[in-house]
Amino acid sequence: MSEKHHIIPVWFFVGFLLLIYGFLILVSGLAEWSHPPTTVLSELHAPVWWGGLLLILGLIYCIKFYPKGGAE
Amino acid sequence: MIAMMATGVPTTLVHLSAVDLVIIAFYFLLVLAIGFYLKRFANTGEDFFLAGREMTAWVAGLAFVSANLGSLELLGWAGSAYQYGILAAHWYWIGAIPAMVFLGIVMMPFYYISKTHSVPGYLQLRYGSAASGLSAVTFAIMTILMSGVNMYAMAVVMKVVLGWNITFSIIVSSVTVGIYVAAGGLFSAIFNEVLQFFLIWFGALLIPILGLIETGGWRGMVARIQQNFPGQDFTHMWGPTNSFSNNPMGIHWTAIVFGLGAVQSMGYWTTDFLVVQRVLSAKDIRSAKMAPIIGSFFKMAVPLIVILPGLLGLAVLPMHLVPASQAQPGQFTYNEVLPLMLARYCGPGLLGLGITALVAGFMAGMAGNVSAFATVWTYDIYRPFIRKTAPDSHYVSMGRWCTMIGLFVSIGTAYLAMNFASIMDYVQALFGFFIAPLFGTVLLGMLWKRVSATAGFLGLLAGTVSSVTMFTLMKTDAKWISVFALSPQAKGLAQDMYQALWSCVTCVVVTVLVTLFTQPKPDAELKGLVYSLTEVAHEGHTSLLHRPLVWGIVALVLLAVLQIIFW
Fold first, then answer.
1. Where are the domains of chain B?
2. Does B61 touch chain A (CB under 8 A)?
3. DSSP helix/strand/coil, B322
4. Measured between alpha carbons, how far is residue B329 from residues A47, B15, B70, B322 in Å?
């Protein structure tokens, strides 16, 4: 993104955020699998597949945009 | 949207678990860390105020659309969708897409080639100090007020949704925003806006997905709405606008097409420096032209996470929401539809993500306002009127200081708003006073080299004064509504659209008339500022897929298709 300054791409930070959030939400979804919260459609276990999706996307972004040294 | 602050409903909508709190805390830590990391790159004026002019089209485009995707808009327009139905989507489609394409294709080359740092900066080059000063001062005041409004709105939402203390929310959010914007300038603001964009999408997208599963798809949702609200049409965009009385918004299609589409949205998306500043950070002119067009595709999709949750609220919520002014203890208001839907579908973890998205949206709103304020104050007020010659480092230092000062003033505004809830509605209205006439002034200046400096200033002044006058007359005596808004049945939003239309027309008429009797600027001073005297780089050598014009046409075709589908 930044040729002049060699700043870490914002996409890496996006990936890092999604990775951490995906992990936390996935683990939280798995932990409540046998006793889901009282929300509507909780039987679909949305935190598990949504957290998993965030985790995978975050991982892809982190790998693709991992700063390759020379960050100033 | 602001009205939700006036409600006295004491209920706490949701309760956060430990994982939710970890998610929220992580967001604060990350944005502070990014701010400190970016500080080392924000050394010159161009770095601090324009993010070094090195953003790609994608980053600038996402920041451009994200600067307008704050939580006030999310909560407010989701509430409007509950109140008015799919008519609210006009503000995302005809009320945004043509203007974004117009900015990218027609106006951006002038902003970019002139190397201006701001919209008042363009006015300075085109018309001189009078028009620029008027625009800069009004913009600076309004951004600070809007930052305070954002701050207070966030604090109230956090109090209503989570039961948090208002002062705690104001202090924590403003200190965080102050630190990261003062450190990294526009770099920080843009990075945070891109993060916020992803947070908002991933935090809110589950609501329409699960909502449509619950209702059995679009048709199931429409059937449930008709069952819950018999005889009312909430799912058609144009059909019910053939008369003021046929739709819950009390609006006529002429107000949507001419007031919203042709003036209000054009004014906002092409001359509000808060959003234009993001595009000015682009690394080259093609990126600057492409950025708003990329943004237009995402803007077109936003109703999925804003309007659809409001419509789903009509279909699935067991209670009927009410206007804030009529809310009794225990009742929920229109503006609470999004948090209610979030609480309906999202348990621990997902709830934290949704709340973080709202917090991020509010903080990005504050950051956007204070970073735009810092630029306009430093470059358009301080430098031309107070200290004309100083080293670049002095202006960067001034930018950092006025970021913090701007936030402190915003805190004062937030507490002012707390004591006078209705004042915030007027602040929003005030903001609208300047935008519509400013569009007339900037557009005439770009397209007609004959327009003189005096004409530009007087046209802008006349448009603004006419806007304030119409607003005051319609608020104080209802008979004026049928004069300006063409029908006594025209409601608030319809009145706003006609007010924008007439104020822009006034600006244009006065500018043209004064131009005919005044001396134009010499051509030599207008190079790079006016259409007939500016050479815009030809895109013939680029492939079709890389041409902004091609994608602009695609965006407009998609817009037309959406109108037909939801006619």
1. 2-422
2. no
3. strand
4. 33, 19, 28, 12
Which residue has 């018999």 as its token pair? B230
Q: What is the dihedral of CA A57, A61, A64, A67, to 10 degrees?
A: -150
* SS3 of chain A: helix, strand, coil, percent, to 5: 60, 0, 40
**A46, B195: Cβ pair inside 8 Å?**
no
B345 shares contact with chain A (CB less than 8 Å): yes
Q: Are B311 and B221 in contact (CB under 8 A)?
A: yes
Burial (CB count within 10 angstroms: exposed 0-12, middle 13-18, buried 19+), residue B318: exposed
Burial B167-195 (b: 16+ CB within 10 A, else e): eebbebbbebbbbbbbbbbbbbbbbbbbb
Query: Quick one: what percent of chain B has pLDDT higher than 90?
Result: 30
Model confidence, pTM: 0.87
Count CB-CB contacts under 10 A for residue B317. Answer: 16
- Please provide the CATH number assigned to the domain covering B2-422: 1.20.1730.10
CA-wise closest residue to B192 among B181, B179, B205: B181
**Distance in angstroms (rounded) separating the CA atoms of residues B121 and B134:** 12
Alpha-carbon gap, residue B268 to B248, rounded angstroms? 25
Strand-pairing partners, residue B333, are: B322
Distance CA B567, CA B552 (A): 22
Collapsing DSSP states into helix, strand and coil, what is residue B282?
strand
Query: What are the structure tokens assigned to A67, written together?
Result: 């700063």
Domain layout of chain A by residue ranges: 19-64
Tokens of A27: 């683990």
Count CB-CB contacts under 10 A for residue A35.
Answer: 7
Using DSSP's 3-state secondary structure scheme, residue B333 falls into strand
For B167-197, what is each residue's pLDDT tens digit? 888 888 888 888 888 888 888 888 988 998 9
What ipTM, to 2 d.p.? 0.91
Q: What are the tens digits of pLDDT across the range B393-442? A: 899 889 888 888 888 888 888 887 776 655 555 665 666 678 888 989 98
Q: In chain B, which among 204-233 make CB contacts under 8 A with chain A?
A: 206, 210, 213-214
